[in-house]
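pipeline/complex-builder :: batch 7 item 3
reading input block
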Amino acid sequence: MDFVRNFPLFSVALCLMSAVLCSVLGAKPAKWLTLSVQAVNCCLSASVAAFCLCTGESYLYPMGFIGAPWGNELRGGVLEGLIGSSAALVLCMSVLGGVRFIKRDILPAKQNLYFLLINLVGAAVTSLIYTNDVFTGYVFLEILTLSSCGILMIRDIGRTTLAATRYLILNLMGSGLFLLGLILSYDITGHLLMQSMAGSFDLLEQSGEHAIVASVAVGLICVGLGIKSGLYPFHFWMQDTYGSATPSSAAVLSGVVSKGYIFLLIKIMCRVIGIGSPLLEGARFILLVLGILGIVMGSVGAMRQSSVNRMIALSSAAQIGYIYVGIGLGTELSLAAAILQLIAHMLTKPLLFLAAARLTEVSSGSPVFKALQGSGRRDPFAGAMFSAGAFSMMGIPAFAGFSAKLYFCVAAVEYQDLAARWAVLLALAVSTVLNTYYFIRTAIRIWSPIGPAAEKPPRHELAFVAASTVLVALNLVIGLWSGQISRVISAGIEMLS
Amino acid sequence: MEAFKIFLLVMLVACAVSVSLTKRLLTSVIIYMCYSLIMSIVWILLRSPDLAITEAAVGAGVSGILMLLTLKKIRRTATDDEAKEGSANEE
Amino acid sequence: MKNSAFAGFLRWLDGDPEILLGAEEMTEQPDVPRDSQKQRIHHLEHVLKDHPLPVPRAFSRRNVRIFYAVVSVVCCLVIISCLLLAVSDLPRFGVEHAEVEEVTEKYVLDGLEETGAVNIVSGIILDYRAFDTLGESFVLFCALNCVLILLRTDSREEEHDISYYSLSGDDVLRKSIMFTLPLVLVFGVYVLLNGHLSPGGGFSGGAVMGGGLILLSTGYGGEVTGRFITERRFKTVCFIALSFYCLSKSYVFFTGANGLETGISLGTPGAILSSGLILPLNIAVGMVVTCTMYGIYRMFKKGSF
Amino acid sequence: MLDKLLMNYELAFAVILFGVGLCTLLFHRNMIKKIIGLNIMDTGLYLLLASMGYVEGAKAPIIEDLTNIGEVADYINPVPSALVLTGIVVSVSVTAISLSLAVRLFKKYHSLDLDEIYAIARRQEKEVF
């Protein structure tokens, strides 16, 4: 057995161990431990992806002596490796780029707990991505919920506590519905492992038994994970949550946490139910409609915001809408576009949050647009990074956001159903116009010369420069070599089902 | 046995509904603790002794105690502030 | 127009939860020093009492309350009836199902041989599905740390809390705790150590023991338990137990997946020292759970250990 | 449908508990009641799961006679018990966190009623700016 196959286990165990270690370390060693563990984690996942790409097939990894269908299993594949490595990288960069704000916002005695929770987020996301067992998925889903709530509420101001409460309640409702879906599908299939469950679902579909339970279960799983990841009518927690958290937490929550839920949903859809299965048709239609609504309403909502971090937060609702449109269309092309969008958004949102936090800092600490006037001139590097992120969000060629949108257009044009095709294309057009409008407006504001009296810009620390440069560089890499990357993604999707 | 089980289940639903209808928080916490105890009997009837022990220790025990402590802490904060206000007024 | 029902509805569409109030800028609140914030709240409460908020007529408090109640009942009924429809389609209750047979057969028939645990549930959670259980203990660990973040007080200002609501003067409580505490602790230890032989295991035993410690600290005050559970010891125990759990399970997963020998013997089934790693794992889990329960209790009660 | 429901009455009760808990969680404005609702919702789920594993007349999944294990049908399905055990621990962790959030909220806003808290938070913000 090739040694690379053990890497998923290693990355989960590494994250968990470093979380335990952080509880006894001080803030500074905990920070370095977390950063290095996440960097190693990224390399491990990347080598899993490379390994699977070379061998051309995915593999199952039993957790213990007994594999399917009795014990837990992990599954390594191209997609898992790709998304796992980008999640670990984004986690690392978000923490690195926001170290100063972590020091500012969090009591010194509690900073090591912050890094502990970041490690738990890493462990939970990695296991969610690699798991081949739906109940393991549920357990790590809960860890992800609790630890992300922890990194949110660690900032000790009233707004954040309030936002954390609402976030927790909605997420718990989502996990409850998800668990109910799991239980119902366990009751009719008798399995918890994905491929065994898929076999039972096929048999049930042929015999036509328990059709109602099956469709209710599928619907509950979709709704539960949709609520947790911020699908349209449930997006309203985003602006408060992302707006009031410390910038690193906002970056982690929008970049990593919601993507973990979405990837789990994609995995369950492809591996358990089968993306083309008639059971999924209703759920897919609903996801498509909600995705389109999310794109439009998220963009409109973002346009009406008066402060920059709330605007970025609400534009997440639109971006997540894109991913759900890709899932809802359910063709291979659209799934590839959804995953490309997932990675692009993962790389862009943290960049925007971190840069916006820097710009806010030089504008007497207020994130309102009026105060931001001319902030790009006060801190040119952060201004440039913000503009790069905004370009990617708008879909300027050469950035990752552009290639994702392009693939969405291709997927929509090749879709058979005429109404869905035009609805998606129209939503894409509207949201591109709106995105461009509000991001350009912001960019003009931050670069325009008039503004409050210049303040002394903060010292440029290496951490922020390094983190944002890495994120922008990856963004450009994905944008410029999108053909190769989408080929890798298509190979991964083929392996998934 | 069947009748007993149905009785317990009806009690469970009654407890669940009355939690949201009662006015006082203390009452609803106590109702919840009763709910957990009934639940642990249901686990025994379902032949899952592991669950019964855990539910009795965790649901009725620790969760209940934490809720009671929360109520106490909240009342404490409230009275504390009243006292402070009072002393401020005297000054 | 600014406070009309329609404007409220529009704001609700934008994700504004508070439809009761007029349009106001929702802006981020900068860090305010604690004391001034407290004063501000006091001030605000008075303001709120004297001048109730401007509320559009369609959304008066009473109407909203009635609306809430109706919506909740309707939602409740809709959800329940949907689920009842689904449940009526489920296989019958109380009979062995053919679908699950394939999986349970192995657990029941080969479980004793493969894991050495007489209690099949223990065998499943600590051997076949050990990854779930590993995750579960980390859920507890995460909860402990979140509670530490939220409730730990670093300043000494709230020290006087202890005397206020400790019941440690109460003789009836003390005497009854003196009788029940040994029983509770012995029961907890029994449940913990016999997890592989009889119902129970790390989680239930740990919760019972944690409950015992909570009893002791309620009756005799935090000083008594604080004497032997210091923060340092608390952290050390948690650290050792969790890292033992994590490392040993990773080792087992690694050897299992690669087909290597673990070198752990299963012993004679039914004996107390048997079933390989299950007993030490149960002890580790039990320690984590005990620490977590007690730690969370102390945080709620006092804000420090 | 109704006769099937009557046969599956345990499951029906479990689902009713789930629904009541979910609505308490969603629509009650008081934090403590929300948390109790959450717990009720979770136990409803666990009841649903565990009753599917129940087999009429079977024993608890603990082997009494080591030499003669017997047949599969002699024992109830042990998997749901294992899953529910995991679930119970998850829900107590969630309860602890949400209760401490409630304490924190009360310290900041002096109320447990979420509507009131929103009102106060808004007022406060208006005053700051």
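note: Residues 3-496 of chain A form one domain.
queue -> next item
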